[in-house]
Amino acid sequence: MAMAQWPGAGHAIKVWDKSPGNPVCEVDLAVDAFLKRELGALLPAAGWLSEETADAPERLEDGLIWLVDPVDGTRDFIHGRTGWAVSVALISAGRPLFGMLAAPARLMAEGGEFWHAEAGRGSWRNGVRLASSTRRELSGARVPANRISDSDADLVAVDQPNSIALRMAMVAADEADLVATLRWGFEWDIGAAALIAREAGAVATDAFGQPLNYNKRDPRAFGVLVTAPAIHAAAVDRLADRARELAG
Asked: Are residues 174 and 228 in the same domain?
């Protein structure tokens, strides 16, 4: 559905701001409605938490919920770039059971990218099992970024898709060693990709190095940090002062 209206293929779509600097388009809403209907029919017992659906407090009573971002990386989508994905996770008792990312604009010659993971059973991209970065030194780590700040000049920038889920998945695929955000974000941004990274052998936490939990009353977390296991502690140490200051 998203590819059928992707501006990168010459289609025109309606775009507006939900809040200043926070764009949404008609495709976000159409994919969200489709997934809510189809996933609800697939598993009627599961609740629902999505970026594009008003939050319903009754989800807190559900042991199972679908956690959905219908188009993660909307800026790349509306500008015709490839760095967007549809993100779906099934959460049980606060932990992801399944995580799925569909990035149909990437690797188009292969029909796009499809990432998936199952708790305790590994993760895959297009049928190939993933093994995460095994980097042992923070200095020289590959980071998806458009530029590197002076304070992190020892890191190496690699391609940065707008989708945070795809950036996290890059660590799972050993295409990056470190992904970090230092802002308040939402569960639907990270639920599927955190499981994909973890099942590939990476470490996925919040910006303070604490475990990620899902289906919370407040569905936010401060930042996300996904790294090769051996550099996680060093990354937490480097970010600690910045994280405390920004999180207030």
From this structure: yes
